[in-house]
Write a structure and sequence with these properties.
The chain is built from eleven helices and 13 strands. By secondary structure, the protein is α+β, with helices and mostly antiparallel strands. The chain has a domain at 224-377: Peroxisomal Thiolase, Chain A, domain 1 (3-Layer(aba) Sandwich). The strands form three sheets. A nine-stranded mixed beta sheet has the order 5-4-6-7-1-8-13-12-11, with helices on both faces. Belongs to the thiolase-like superfamily. Chalcone/stilbene synthases family.
Length: 383
């Protein structure tokens, strides 16, 4: 049967993390030792680390695992030895490329798409910049065509990974022969601040480093276990611009996360999801960006999700922390791997992520075990 529009899907996903792993209990203990003499900050640090929902994270900076007397990212009496932004950007340039390359190579392999067939490259990051950028470097290292259409999405925050997926879906919908490679890399731990302020301690408690990638295109007979992409929705939420702020400072980037964010999302997001679903039934699968334990708790509560439905997001937060824009593809990858292994039938889903603004990005998807079943879903209203 012929259809007016092709079915657009995520054909393959790849993820990568650095070698250095941060144990949450150890990190909390080391921070508290560095805060000796400030019992109030110690109590606050213990509390937020304990309640973060994170057990392990990864970092590209071995210095973060050094003894407290040698770790330049922990609170100190003076700022003399604290890494300046220029040094942090040098580390970013050195460490981001191999992580991005590893994730992208895995996504290409899993999608059965060759590098020469990629028509568009979308690179995503908010934790560092350099020029020529990550997009130009990856063209050479991956062997992409020199005329590939390069689209960098920089400094958009945690929602940017899903924004890139929505952009990729739109490209393939309009250009049926296109293959879009999306690569997200975030080195969040480079911006840990040597501060006793609550905001700095909060950010230090759950952000991690990692890269993720995916290929979006039109499936053929060599593809199976697909995430078919449907309607998308983007919204800039009202009266919330100051609730999440990410600014460049002399000693890395400074992040402010308001404690009101989960409550605000709980009040504002339901009607936006309802618009995306056209007031229809809730899907079975939920890929929620694990921006923090409170965000997952709020989304689970307001949508009446079971622990089973929220487990993908909680598992990623538990083992990797918040990887900013790269995180959502980690969630989708865990979901996809489990569905493929359990020989699950087709299931509908929604992916949702949040970022500064406050902004929310969301998209509907359908898990399709095979291209044969994919044809059965190609006439669904949300495609």
């Amino acid at each position: 049967m012929e259809h007016a529009d092709p079915t657009v899907a995520i054909l393959g996903i790849g993820t990568a993390v650095p070698d250095c792993r941060i144990d949450q209990e150890d990190a909390s203990q080391r921070l508290c030792e560095a805060l000796e003499g400030d019992p109030h900050s110690i109590r606050w640090a213990k509390r937020i680390f304990r309640q973060s929902g994170v057990n392990t994270r990864y970092t590209c900076e071995p210095d973060l695992l050094a003894a407290i007397t040698g770790c330049r990212y922990l609170p100190q009496e003076t700022m003399e030895h604290i890494p300046a932004t220029s040094e942090r950007m040098s580390i970013y340039k050195r460490e981001s490329v191999p992580l991005a390359f590893k994730a992208a190579s895995s996504a290409l392999y899993n999608s059965n798409i060759t590098a020469s067939d990629i028509t568009h490259l979308i690179t995503v990051s908010c934790t560092g910049q350099f020029l020529p950028g990550l997009d130009a470097v990856l063209v050479h290292q991956l062997g992409l065509a020199p005329h590939v259409n390069r689209i960098p999405l920089n400094f958009l925050g945690c929602a940017a990974g899903l924004k890139a997926i929505c952009l990729g879906k739109g490209i393939v919908s309009r250009q049926h022969e296109a293959n879009v490679l999306i690569v997200c890399v975030e080195l969040c731990t480079l911006h840990i601040q040597p501060s006793i302020e609550k905001e700095a301690l909060l950010a230090a408690s759950f952000f991690g480093d990692g890269a993720s990638a995916c290929v979006i295109g039109t499936a053929d007979d060599c593809h199976s276990g697909l995430l078919q992409l449907g309607d998308e929705h983007s919204v800039l939420l009202p009266d919330s611009a100051e609730e999440m702020v990410w600014e460049v400072g002399d000693y890395g980037f400074h992040l402010y996360l308001s404690p009101k964010i989960p409550k605000l999302l709980g009040e504002l997001i339901p009607k936006e999801v309802s618009r995306l679903l056209h007031d229809g039934e809730k899907p079975d699968l939920w890929a929620i960006h694990p921006g923090g334990r409170g965000i997952i708790d709020t989304m689970q509560g307001i949508f009446g999700l079971t622990d089973e439905q929220a487990r993908y997001s909680r598992h990623v937060l538990l083992h990797y922390g918040n990887l900013s824009s790269a995180t959502l593809l980690f969630v989708l990858n865990e979901m996809l791997q489990e569905l493929s292994q359990t020989a699950s039938g087709g299931s509908s889903g929604i992916a949702i992520a949040f970022g500064p603004g406050l902004t929310a990005e969301m998209i509907r998807f359908h898990y399709v075990p095979s291209t044969r079943q994919q044809e059965q879903y190609s006439d669904r209203a949300y495609v």
